[in-house]
């Protein structure tokens, strides 16, 4: 037991000496070798691609250059400062990122920004008319349709679409058609009441 | 997500000629973008085919042709579909969420991955993700797993609801192959069982495109049901689902269709039970016997034996509902 312990100690000492000298050697590698490594990397690995795109968001045109991997949600939040749309799960399970694309509700976290070109996008920031809130926003406030508020913009975007689609015939129908939006505070009753009020 | 090159071909021909060894087509993206974020799928090139494929629903004399780009919601709310193929509409509306149904394409619904929790967890073995790494679910958490048609290599189930209806309705899949030629596949031959190659979910030739789905005319629009049983009432995968359709002559069954989701690696048709029902009276006894015949062939895994009685009950209930369902 004692023997193996001291053996492990000497191993780790040896490992330390080896790795630190390897690191020291790394700094002496000439730039030409590093450049060669970069060349090889560029040849065999796909570089990130930056794409110039045009987006129409809340009736405003935006021209920007984005990574091909960027989702609409990331572009809204990180590039355009439209942080109303929230990143909940980022995997299409919670609905916090819901926006309208060509008038239909969709998940911005599963939409590549490059694929959103040429479409009319509406986010929560585009609902109100100046200082006048959208009736659904008013109804959410009136009926306590939220607690922490994180899912609220997604809920409201989905709720507006739910009314437009005409899926408000009963509480059951509203719940079914709002099932893509999760609320972990459990404000569902308030949300349902708000939708019923606007649907009237 | 690994970097990739994004391109948007203008025609099917251009799309087919732009493929590379590790490229993928993308339409709705609801499954693929998620898999790429999790680095389960790592294409080096994405071909955005949203402008190349038909997005119309065309009613013909012998059936309906649904373009591959038609969004799931658009199929479900289409007037002709609601009138003549209401089972398809009902099944679609039981799947995913309104947002996802608005995004997902018809072709993409067929091509979503057959999957289970082990497929989604890169730290666990999964033959579907990496053949040869083993199936963690076989003796692990297989509550959601298959009860028929599985192999030691894979016990995952196909998650689509729309596909269960298409299986029941004997649909056909029109495809355009990489060499430009066209082919029509029977829907029942489209998806495959895992065998020793669970990394393949379907028999679509490499780099081929689904261009449309054909659903033949039928006499099932009066007596049908899609029953989906799950852990929560909405927005969850099926534990067991049943698509049932009857062509009735008085109280006699001229033809029956029964298919299930949540039970196998592909949408499953209960052909023996269908054959039993043909020509029989629509009685509770016959429905119970059909359910028994279907369940007879199942062999549940270590933790999903509950699915067998659930399936029997679901088949019986769905058949009863067929008699009272008014489209």
TrEMBL record, chain A:
Q: Which SUPFAM superfamilies match?
A: 2Fe-2S ferredoxin-like (SSF54292), CO dehydrogenase ISP C-domain like (SSF47741)
Would I find Iron-sulfur among this entry's keywords?
yes
Domain 2Fe-2S ferredoxin-type, first and last residues per copy: 51-127
**Which residues, if any, are the signal sequence?**
1-24
Gene3D superfamilies linked to this entry: 3.10.20.30, [2Fe-2S]-binding domain
One Pfam family here = Fer2
The record's keywords, sorted A to Z, are: 2Fe-2S, Iron, Iron-sulfur, Metal-binding, Oxidoreductase, Signal
A molecular function (GO) term: metal ion binding
Listed InterPro entries = 2Fe-2S-bd, 2Fe-2S-bd_dom_sf, 2Fe-2S_ferredoxin-like_sf, 2Fe-2S_ferredoxin-type, 2Fe2S_fd_BS, Aldehyde_Oxdr_Iron-Sulfur, Beta-grasp_dom_sf, TAT_signal
Name the chain's protein: Xanthine dehydrogenase YagT iron-sulfur-binding subunit
Taxonomic lineage per UniProt? Bacteria, Pseudomonadati, Bacteroidota, Bacteroidia, Marinilabiliales
TrEMBL record, chain B:
Keywords for the protein's UniProt record, in alphabetical order: FAD, Flavoprotein
Q: Which Pfam families match?
A: CO_deh_flav_C (PF03450), FAD_binding_5 (PF00941)
Read off the SMART domains from this record.
CO_deh_flav_C (SM01092)
* Gene Ontology MF annotations: FAD binding; oxidoreductase activity
Asked if Transcription is a keyword of the record, the answer is no
Q: Where is the FAD-binding PCMH-type domain?
A: 1-220
Tell me the PANTHER family matching this sequence.
OXIDOREDUCTASE, XANTHINE DEHYDROGENASE SUBUNIT C-RELATED
Q: What is this protein called?
A: FAD-binding molybdopterin dehydrogenase
Source organism of this protein record: Prolixibacter denitrificans
């Amino acid at each position: 037991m004692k023997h193996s312990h001291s053996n492990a100690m000497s191993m780790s000492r040896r490992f330390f000496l080896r790795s630190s000298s390897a690191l020291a050697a790394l700094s002496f590698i000439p730039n030409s070798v590093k450049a060669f490594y970069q060349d090889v990397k560029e040849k065999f690995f796909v570089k990130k691609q930056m794409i110039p795109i045009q987006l129409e968001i809340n009736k405003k045109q935006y021209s920007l250059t984005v990574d091909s991997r960027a989702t609409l949600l990331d572009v809204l939040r990180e590039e355009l400062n439209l942080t109303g749309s929230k990143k909940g799960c980022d995997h299409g399970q919670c609905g916090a990122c819901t926006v309208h694309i060509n008038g239909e509700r969709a998940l911005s976290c599963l939409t590549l920004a490059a694929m959103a070109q040429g479409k009319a996008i509406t986010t929560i920031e585009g609902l109100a008319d100046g200082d006048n809130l959208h009736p659904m926003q008013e109804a959410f406030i009136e009926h306590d349709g939220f607690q922490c508020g994180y899912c609220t913009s997604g809920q409201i975007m989905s709720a507006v679409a739910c009314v437009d689609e005409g899926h408000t015939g009963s509480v059951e129908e509203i719940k079914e058609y709002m099932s893509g939006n999760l609320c972990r505070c459990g404000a569902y009753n308030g949300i349902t009441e708000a939708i019923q009020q606007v649907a009237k | 997500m690994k970097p990739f090159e994004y391109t948007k071909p203008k025609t099917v021909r251009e799309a087919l000629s732009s493929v590379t060894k590790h490229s993928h087509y993308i339409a709705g993206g609801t499954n693929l973008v998620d898999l790429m974020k999790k680095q389960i799928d790592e294409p080096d090139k994405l071909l955005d085919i949203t402008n190349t494929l038909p997005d119309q629903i065309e009613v013909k004399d012998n059936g309906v042709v649904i373009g591959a780009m038609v969004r799931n919601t658009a199929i479900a709310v289409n007037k002709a579909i609601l009138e003549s193929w209401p089972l398809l509409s009902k099944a679609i509306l039981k799947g995913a969420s309104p947002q996802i149904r608005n995004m997902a394409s018809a072709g993409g619904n067929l091509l979503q991955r057959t999957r289970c929790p082990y497929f989604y967890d890169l730290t666990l073995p999964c033959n579907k993700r990496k053949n040869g790494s083993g199936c963690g679910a076989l003796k692990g958490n297989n509550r959601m797993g298959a009860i028929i048609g599985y192999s030691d290599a894979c016990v995952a189930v196909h998650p689509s609801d729309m596909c269960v209806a298409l299986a029941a309705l004997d649909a056909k899949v029109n495809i355009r192959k990489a060499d430009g030629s066209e082919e029509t596949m029977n829907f029942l031959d489209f998806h495959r069982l895992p065998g020793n190659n669970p990394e393949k979910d379907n028999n679509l030739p490499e780099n081929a495109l689904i261009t449309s789905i054909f659903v033949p005319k039928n006499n099932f629009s009066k007596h049908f049901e899609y029953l989906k049983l799950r852990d929560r009432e909405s927005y969850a995968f099926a534990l067991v689902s049943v698509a049932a359709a009857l062509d009735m002559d008085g109280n006699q069954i001229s033809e029956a269709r029964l298919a299930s989701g949540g039970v196998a690696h592909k949408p499953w048709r209960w052909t023996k039970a269908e054959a039993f029902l043909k020509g029989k009276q629509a009685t509770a006894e016959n429905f119970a016997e059909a359910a028994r015949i279907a369940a007879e062939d199942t062999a549940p895994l270590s933790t999903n034996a509950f699915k067998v009685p659930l399936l029997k009950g679901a088949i019986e209930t769905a058949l009863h509902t067929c008699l009272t369902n008014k489209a």
